[in-house]
Amino acid sequence: MTTVRECVLLAFAFCRIGLYTCYRRIFYGPPPPPRPGFSAICIGITGAGKSKVLAVLCSEKDEIIPTQGFSIKDVPFENAILHVKEIGGSEMLRKYWKKYYRGVQGIIFVVDSSCDEDTLKIASEEFCKAIMDPDLAGLPLLVLLNSIDQSKARSIEEITDAFNINELCSERKWSIRNCYACDADSASFLALILAS
Ligand SMILES: Nc1nc2c(ncn2[C@@H]2O[C@H](COP(=O)(O)OP(=O)(O)OP(=O)(O)O)[C@@H](O)[C@H]2O)c(=O)[nH]1
Ligand SMILES: [Mg+2]
Question: What residues does Mg(2+) bind to (predicted)?
């Protein structure tokens, strides 16, 4: 008796699933095709604003604290999902950056455009080191200038020169953009070229 009752309930459950699927198809159309996923690395020295930028892109409102080790975020765009690995930029952690390079498909380098000269020099040295790494050779690059709301913020041209990007990146697709706590538009550059 129990078995018959279970069979009826099971059949009823399948009918419900079937009816719900038909309802969705009729009123909402077929499900959207899955978006391709790409992996990117997000680097830059501590305080550059990497976590903040990624939190904005993921619509997160959590308190921002310095990244210990690394953190992974899935950033959704219309045409792709970027699986971004942010690595902490403190002096102690920078020597481990290269351990995370293998297998990534794009690079995001975040710079605090309002930092002092010494910090900018360190940032440009770290940038050069990262960009020259064989594991990152030829990968698309997005440089994000953060903290442009600050009075001492440098321009895109100043950072491009300070980092010698034109010369260092002649063999790859790259873009440098302003981002005040970042907008999805500037970061979607990377998703766009990876998906193309
Ligand atoms: N004024 C201003 N402050 C910002 C901006 N972006 C980030 N900050 C602040 O800068 C501080 C450092 O930002 P984080 O996102 O933690 O920097 P990070 O690059 O992730 O640093 P690490 O994880 O230590 O490598 C935080 O207090 C942020 O709120 C910005 O565009 N403008
Ligand atoms: Mg961080």
Answer: 51, 67
